[in-house]
Design brief:
3-stranded antiparallel β-sheet; mainly beta; 6-stranded mixed β-sheet; 121 residues
Length: 121
């Protein structure tokens, strides 16, 4: 694997959220993820308890094209319904055959409250 990727994810409360990912090896070639188990979490800050947890193969992390290193994290609106708008932290890990979790990507996870502006006539 290459270096850990950092990115900011913006998720509007009340909406479903899909986070596609593409993994490459140190040479920039697709990282083959056949049979790999992934975990994605959202938490208040790094090293805190997870507030939302997703995993593959059947709990919110799907592999779209294993040979090409393509996958997706799906966070439903219900998954974050107990959270308030604000800044959180997210991380994506690969779990290897020894059950060791290897960090792949991380960053800020912003939950945004949408305020609708209604005008009367």
């Amino acid at each position: 694997m290459g270096a850990i990727t950092t990115d900011t994810l913006d998720h509007c409360l009340g909406e479903d959220f899909n986070f596609p990912f593409e993994l490459e090896d140190a040479n920039g070639d697709p990282y083959v993820i056949t049979g790999t188990v992934f975990f994605w979490i959202a938490q208040n800050k790094a090293d805190a308890d997870a507030l939302v947890t997703k995993s593959s193969p059947a709990s919110g992390v799907t592999i779209d094209y294993a040979a090409g290193g393509l996958g997706q994290v799906d966070v439903a609106r219900a998954d974050v319904s107990a959270l308030t708008a604000g800044d959180y932290y997210w991380a994506l890990w690969e779990e290897n055959a020894s059950s060791k979790r290897i960090p792949l990507a991380e960053g800020e996870y912003r939950l945004i409250q949408i305020v609708e502006d209604f005008q009367t006539v």
